[in-house]
């Protein structure tokens, strides 16, 4: 699997996505996971009220709290 540096990613992401990724790194570290995986990142995006993910879930009547629990 190819490794991608933080610098490359940081240059391509917007503010919300970058904050979520940084939080995902912290979450993975706390859980002692060796890698940041999509679920780390998505969970952090879900916790940001200004994210597109929260707005999309709301548009479809899906409770973000339930998604978080699942």
Observed structural traits:
70 residues, mainly alpha, 63% helix, globular
Task: Please write out the topology.
Elements: H1 6-10, H2 15-30, H3 38-46, H4 52-59, H5 64-69
Helix pairs in contact: 2-3
Could you provide a short overview of the structure?
This protein is mainly α and 70 residues long. It has helices at 6-10, 15-30, 38-46, 52-59, 64-69.
Protein described:
With 70 residues, this protein is mainly alpha-helical. Helices cover 63% and strands 0% of the residues. The chain has five helices and no strands. It has helices at 6-10, 15-30, 38-46, 52-59, 64-69. Helix 2 crosses helix 3. The longest helix is centred in the N-terminal third of the chain and has 16 residues, at 15-30. The relative contact order is 0.12. The mean pLDDT is 81.
């Amino acid at each position: 699997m190819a490794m991608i540096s933080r610098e490359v990613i940081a240059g391509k992401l917007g503010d919300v996505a970058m904050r979520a990724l940084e939080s995902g790194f912290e979450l993975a570290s706390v859980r002692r996971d060796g890698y940041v995986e999509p679920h780390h990142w998505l969970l952090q995006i879900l916790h940001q009220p200004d994210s597109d993910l929260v707005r999309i879930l709301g548009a479809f009547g899906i409770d973000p709290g339930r998604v978080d629990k699942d």
